[in-house]
Amino acid sequence: MSRFFSNKYRSLVPYTPGEQPTERKYIKLNTNESPFPPSDKAVAAAAEAARLLQLYPDPTCGELTAAVATLCGVQADEVLLTNGSDEILNFAFMAFCDDEHPAVFPDISYGFYKVFAELNGVPYRTVPLKDDLSIDPADYAAAGGTVFIANPNAPTGLALSPAEVEGILQANPNNVVVIDEAYVDFGAESCVSLVHKYDNLLVTQTFSKSRSMAGARLGFGVGCAALIQDLNTVKYSTNPYNINRMTMAAGLGVLADEAYTQANCRAVCATRTQTREALLQLGFEVAESKTNFLFARHRGFGGAELYAKLKENGILVRHFNQPRIQDYIRITIGSSQEMQVFVNTLRTILEEC
Questions:
Q1: Amino acid 352: pLDDT
Q2: What is the pLDDT of residues 297-334, one digit of tens each?
Q3: What's CA 269's distance to the chain center, in Å?
Q4: I need a surface site. Which of 114, 154, 273, 294 has the fewest CB within 10 A?
């Protein structure tokens, strides 16, 4: 680092994104991207919007906000569009956390929570997952801070029910509870319906996974109008034009093609089931995923070893060095053909060792 770098950030450990290699062609099962291209309607809308790139985009994202509100069954003033769901999560750390309201989140979860806390100078407390890597809602009773829970959780893929989330909300009436639903479209139940019942609930979602728009960077949050107003204050104090014109248009295009999204989700879930069954037959322990990935380990091999051997064979998965999960690998669900290659390659690796 340079001698000019602010002391407040010198100890910051940034988030490590999944590999995006350019030196060779891999089967990429490491960053939870969709195996399907974006909707043709999204592509066409983005191309048309490119004709007006000389103009600033609508800072209110009015048309897209209305469309998302309709999708979620809420009012437009209960929705905020952001540059990926990471941005609204960061806004939430900025708006709802401070010395009197520390952040509280699981010890094994989305790695950005810790980064956002440290970036914003927010004290935080991590809550250990249970031995089976699930979240125990009772651990968040009277949490004493702003709660952040990925549901389904990452990298485990396990999900809480809306009733369990409701218990957390009831136990923390004076603190905001943020439910990060990045993977909700792959078999979990959304908590969006609870925002009219609890004024301390913020639900975040993304277009990156189920809607094949990871490269566009589009996310949103749903909460009561007062919470959204708070987040808009942060947004308009940082970057009013946070959604570019092409992304906004692509978002409208994909929402106009909901049948395409739902068909893709069903296909991913079917391939996930097939892949899980194959892994079980190979002797793996595999969590019951409600996401577009699987979290698995084999008693005979370390996670780092499997990651390395798969990479040698042209397949990228994700490995984490945290002690409790270092024996696991996280496997994005690709196309059915990609997953067959993955299983066959894994079988060969196990046989050779």
A1: 86
A2: 999 899 999 999 999 999 999 999 999 999 999 999 99
A3: 17
A4: 273
> How many C-beta atoms lie closer than 10 Å to residue 267's C-beta?
15
Residue type, 118: E
- Residues recorded for the chain: 353
β-pairing verdict for 201-206 and 177-180: parallel
What is the β-pairing status of strands 124-127 and 177-180?
unpaired
CB atoms within 10 A of CB 196: 13
Residue 153 contacts residue 109 (beta carbons within 8 Å): yes
C-beta of residue 21 within 8 angstroms of C-beta of residue 316: yes
CA angle 148, 264, 108 (to 5 degrees): 25
Query: What topology does CATH give the domain 40-256?
Result: Aspartate Aminotransferase; domain 2 (3.40.640)
Q: Look at residues 269, 267, 352, 249 and name the one whose alpha carbon lies nearest to residue 306.
A: 352
Q: Which two tokens stand for residue 159?
A: 């999900």
Residues forming CATH 3.40.640.10 domain(s) in the chain: 40-256
Residue numbers in the chain where pLDDT is lower than 70: none
Q: Does domain 17-37+259-352 have CATH number 3.40.50.1000?
A: no
Q: Residue 256: enclosing H or E segment and its boundaries?
A: none
Q: How far is CA 172 from the centre of its chain?
A: 23
DSSP per-residue string spanning 36-67:
SPPPHHHHHHHHHHGGGTTS---TT-HHHHHH
Residue whose tokens read 């509870």: 177
pLDDT, one tens digit per residue, over 207-258 is 999 999 999 999 999 999 999 999 999 999 999 999 999 999 999 999 999 9
